[in-house]
Amino acid sequence: MNKLSPCLLGLSVAVACSLAAAAQESSPATPSIPKVLQITREFTKPYKGGAAHDKTETAFVEAMTKAKWPTHYIGMTSLSGKSRALYLTPYASFEAWEKDNAAVEKNTALAAELERASVADGELLDEVDQGVFVYSEESSLHPMADLSHQRFMEVSVYTVRPGHTREWREAVKLVKGAYEKAGTGVHWAMFHEAYGGQGSRYLILESHKTLAEIDSDFLNDKKFAEALGEDGLKHLDELVAASVETAQHELFQFNPHMSYVADEWIAADPDFWKPKPASE
């Protein structure tokens, strides 16, 4: 599903469901981790975020609600780094993505409304970029498929040095095994970027109901270190030094004004997922 101009369909997406909603070919009642995740970042102009951006994004939500569009999405706004909104769109496959784009093109009324909303939204933006990621099941740890009650998302991006994928995979395996041994509640979903970036990038998403859960995660560091042991920690440092070129960690908050979610989500928490219009 694309909220930008219809002529850009297939090249970019600005709205999305996060890991929580079912992929297009799945039932909303049985959410699953998407095989393909399309992500768009919208960087707002200085002081053009907040209520102003909520209002322009609401136009996309209203258009898709009117069309009863089957692809749902979550929008998030940054709590760290540059002011921006993040949108993630899940698909069961690249074929499902293609079919969704084709369906929008055929729905002339919806396409026209999305284009009008895109023009208004563009007035608030400094920059937009996109990436397409593929789910890595073996590198994920107890990923959450249902995010209807989650409110925050930690987003970590690692760029792996060329020729050092083996060390990266070994490091991830080591970390995953230590957390499992420690018996913590830490969880994440990992995706590998297939299109849109430079180098080999890996995305790790970890959701939270409250920020207090992050406090608990920091307390888990001791358990993690004990599970890995001194030699394991040393080996992990060596693997990371050899394989990781850059690492970035950011925090986002789910934004209901920017999200078009399934009816099941609204029923689960209507006060959050169906707020008063941003224009009021």
Helical residue percent band: 25-40%
The CATH class of the largest domain turns out to be Alpha Beta
* Broad shape: globular
List the helices and strands in order: EHEEHHEEHEEHEHH
User: How many strand units?
Assistant: 8
* Class computed from helices, strands and strand pairing: alpha+beta
Strand order of the largest sheet: 1-3-2-8-5-7-6-4
Distance between the termini: 27 Å
Radius of gyration: 19 Å
Total count of domains: 2
CATH-scheme architecture of the largest domain: 2-Layer Sandwich
Strand content: 25-35%
Major sheet attributes? 8 strands, antiparallel, barrel
Total count of helical runs of at least 4 residues: 7
Describe this structure in words.
The chain is of the alpha+beta class. The chain folds into two domains: 6-132 and 252-273, Alpha-Beta Plaits, CATH 3.30.70; 136-249, Alpha-Beta Plaits (2-Layer Sandwich). It has helices at residues 51-67, 94-106, 108-122, 165-182, 212-243, 263-268, 270-273; strands spanning 36-44, 73-78, 84-91, 125-141, 152-160, 188-195, 200-208, 244-260. The chain has an eight-stranded antiparallel β-barrel with strand order 1-3-2-8-5-7-6-4, surrounded by four helices. Helix 1 runs antiparallel to helix 3 (108-122) and helix 4 runs antiparallel to helix 5 (212-243). It is globular and about 60 Å long. It starts with 35 loop residues before the first strand and ends in a 7-residue tail after the last helix.
